[in-house]
Design a protein that fits this description.
heterodimer; A: Four Helix Bundle (Hemerythrin (Met), subunit A); globular; B: 3 helices; heme binding (chain A); cytochrome c-type biogenesis (chain A); Cyt_c_biogenesis_CcmC (chain A); membrane (chain A); Heme exporter protein C (chain A)
Chain lengths: ~220, ~70
């Protein structure tokens, strides 16, 4: 348990967010009403995805340097779990949009680029699936991953800020942080982000350990 | 005089519109008042605790498997 303290921390943080996120005071805002509490659950999905993709790209660079198979496995599992969190982010955002903007999906720059970013990472998984030779797969995958990460950052954080967007924190639309993410909300929002990021890394670690053993038996 | 009263009334109307912006944002106060929101919080907490126990048990099983596996290798 001494090595796994962060897993317990993740669980405690998320239980705290569920309770505090649903019960603590939030600012009364038109259109959003109680749905502002989604901030504690929808946004951490994206932060978790980004941190997992970041760890993945770090391991891809490491793989190219070391040629160690385990670095490659860590990179893949980072993307595998990151994509799941990205899809959860899209789904929760879509539901939230239905009740605040009145539609499940609009051709908003933030929404479209987030979708494209996830598709780019799905393409990474498809690319890997199509290559049989292990070392070639690992090397091509690593290079693709290193290119995919900055593209994802530009798509999700830069391009939507340069045009008009409905999504908070983007062009012509202030983020929650600027005017109404008050001190009470921060007290819940930050632990929520840390908690979900840790959960993401936990699942990634489990998948990596399974893959490692699987590969050992396959090589026998 | 009439003019002043009219302008005062018009000004008061604008106060009413301010009130509408600030005071009447619909929140789940009723659910909070009846205490039923706590039921929802309880349900979600139970679900999450259940899932986290499941994650811990998978983690433990995997650790055991890894230990056996390492013993077999050596």
């Amino acid at each position: 348990m001494t090595k796994n303290w962060w897993k317990l921390l993740a669980v405690v943080f998320i239980i705290y967010t569920i309770i505090a996120g649903l019960l603590f005071k939030v600012p009364h805002l038109a259109i959003l009403h109680e749905s502002i509490r989604n901030l504690y659950f929808h946004v951490p999905m994206w932060f978790t995805m980004i941190m997992l993709f970041l760890s993945s790209v770090i391991y891809s660079v490491k793989y190219l340097k070391s040629g160690n198979e385990q670095d490659d496995l860590r990179a893949v599992e980072g993307v595998n779990v990151g994509v799941i969190f990205g899809i959860l982010g899209l789904l929760t955002g879509s539901l939230w949009a239905k009740f605040t903007w009145g539609t499940w999906w609009t051709t908003d720059p933030k929404l479209n680029s987030a979708l494209i970013a996830i598709l780019i990472y799905l393409a990474y998984l498809v690319l890997r699936g199509s290559l049989d030779e292990e070392q070639k797969r690992a090397r091509i995958g690593a290079v693709y991953n290193i290119f995919a990460f900055p593209v994802m950052i530009v798509l999700v954080f830069v391009l939507p800020r340069m045009t008009d967007s409905l999504h908070p924190g983007n062009g012509g639309n202030p983020g929650f942080g600027s005017y109404d993410l008050d001190r009470n909300m921060r007290m819940v929002f930050y632990p929520a982000c840390i908690g979900w990021i840790l959960i993401g890394f936990w699942i990634k670690q489990l998948r990596f350990r399974i893959r490692k053993m699987e590969n050992y038996f396959l090589s026998k | 005089m009439k003019k002043y009263i009219l302008s005062l009334v018009l000004m008061l109307i604008s106060i009413a519109t301010f009130a509408q912006n600030n005071g009447t944002v619909e929140m789940a106060d009723e659910m909070r008042g009846s205490g039923k929101i706590y039921v929802v919080v309880g349900v979600i907490t139970i679900i999450f605790i259940g899932i986290s126990f499941y994650l811990f048990s998978i983690d433990k099983k995997l650790s055991k498997l890894e230990k056996d596996h390492n013993q077999l290798r050596n």
